[in-house]
Design goal:
The complex is a heterodimer. Chain A is globular and about 40 Å long. Chain A has no helices and 10 strands. Chain B contains 11 helices and 26 strands. The longest helix of chain B is centred in the last third of the chain and has 15 residues. The chains are: A mainly beta, B alpha/beta. At the A-B interface, loops of A face α8 and α9 of B. Bound molecules: flavin-adenine dinucleotide (FAD) and FE2/S2 (inorganic) cluster (FES). Chain B: Keywords: FAD, Flavoprotein, Oxidoreductase. Chain B: InterPro entries: FAD-oxidoreductase/Apoptosis, FAD/NAD-bd_sf, FAD/NAD-binding_dom, FAD/NAD-linked_Rdtase_dimer_sf, Reductase_C. Chain B: Pfam families: Pyr_redox_2 (PF07992), Reductase_C (PF14759).
Chain lengths: ~100, ~400
Amino acid sequence: MSDTWIEVCAADEIDEEDVIRFDHAGRTFAIYRSPEDTYHATDGLCTHEKIHLADGLVMDHIIECPKHNGRFDYKTGEAKGAPVCVDLRTYPVKVEGGTVFIGL
Amino acid sequence: MADFVIVGAGECGARAAFALREKGFDGTITLIGSETHLPYERPPLSKEALVAGAGPKLVADAERYAAAGIAVLSGRTVLEIDRAGRRVRLGDGTALPYDKLLLATGARPRTLPGMACGGRIAALRSHDDATRIRAHLVEGSHVAILGGGFIGLELAASARKLGASVTLVEGLPRVLSRGVPAEIAAIVASRHAAEGVEVLCGAKVAGIEERPGEVRLTLEDGRVVSASLLVVGIGAVPNTELAEAAGLAVDNGIAVDGLLRTSDPDILAAGDCTSYPLPLYGDRRVRLESWRNAQEQGQLAAANMLGGGEAHCAVPWFWSDQYDMTLQIAGLADGAATTVRRDLGEGAFLLFHLDAEGRLIAASGIGKGNAVARDIRLAEMLIAARRHPDPAALAAPETKLKTLLAA
Ligand SMILES: Cc1cc2nc3c(=O)[nH]c(=O)nc-3n(C[C@H](O)[C@H](O)[C@H](O)COP(=O)(O)OP(=O)(O)OC[C@H]3O[C@@H](n4cnc5c(N)ncnc54)[C@H](O)[C@@H]3O)c2cc1C
Ligand code: FES
């Protein structure tokens, strides 16, 4: 894997069990902080309609789309049932020196 | 092997069919629908699909039905249920046996007395309706919309995007008088006015006349609206005739219990065609016309066709998109004693509706894009948990609703 690590934000800029939007090079991502304080990243747009997931609600390891409540496991990208049936792409994330990086 | 038959291939019927397989049912599943398309989502018909002139947004493509072993009979109508013989009879005379039957027949637009759709009068329920309406929505044309409910208003917004001019006629003093707080309806109405829609509230129709090249609406105060097309958006009526003819109980929809069973335990009903008791609201019997309800009940019906015994205990939820605004409503607000407002900035706000004991029974919100979505979802959880949140905390945007849920 030849990931390039891109700086996202300071680790404490994302609340626990929450998500933020991150735009980079014309693409949009959703960056999550889980209740266990781990960080994760997926494509930013829902696979049902192109809606920013960062406006949605994080519950445990699930992100729920704000538009029609489609659900994904943000750790694996797995679509968890109607109306979403296409999985989300996930990306590696690392936290170094209090900063979150996404591997693209 | 058991034979399960689903009548009505809409959102609800299709979700039920897939849910049966997901839950491990290995008998036959036959999904029968009058429309010639595979099951598709209706919400886009008045919104983005209408503007784009897009084809139907299918719930699933043909391969997914084939892979799940679901037989879809499109363009076929069930005419009769033979309960004694446990068969349904189709329009072409075919009889299909069932062990369990699900009625997901949906609803159809209410029509004006003595006035059928056709010519320059239309209603919006199906993809074919949308195609017909869209042909009239061109730059410089004029459409009249009767009814200031969700469908009429969404259609007005889409028509404006396509460059048509719009007159919307509502008989009541304001738009969205059913289920939407006046504060939110006022914002919707003023936005439509700002976008150039002529909104006539409190306007009673005295007569409708089709003439060559136009349809004319005469109002009781003498005003005349001339349009290329009149779209009637005055609500929907549940498709209950089949159930009624079979002797099933009907009460503003096919009457089902909390497990979605009709008065015949082998026949269930779900979605827009049913009325059912809502445990969160004192088992009050309601009929909802909502996309998520159709989905949830379809899934629940599937579980209960398999003997699951799960009761329906959801919070009603609805959304509407108009221009760049989205409105969301969770719960039922009638019966509210107090309302608390929370401002989210950039014009977005939420209203929390509490009953006399301070229990949160509904929340509604409007804003740009999905500004209110997350908080409405959290409110929905508070409603489901029958919470009595502190009104001051609800009003304070700096208090995260999530913390109220944990409290
Ligand atoms: C234009 C429009 C916009 C909407 N927007 C929203 C929105 O923004 N948000 C929201 O929450 N909800 C919205 N809704 C409501 C939502 O689409 C419905 O609640 C949902 O479609 C109900 O699904 P259903 O399967 O119960 O019924 P339907 O979708 O009505 O499907 C029932 C199907 O059964 C078929 N049928 C009936 N009788 C028979 C028979 N005897 N034999 C065979 N087939 C039969 C019908 O032809 C139909 O195809 C909208 C609806 C419309 C029309
Ligand atoms: S856009 Fe995400 S669930 Fe529909």
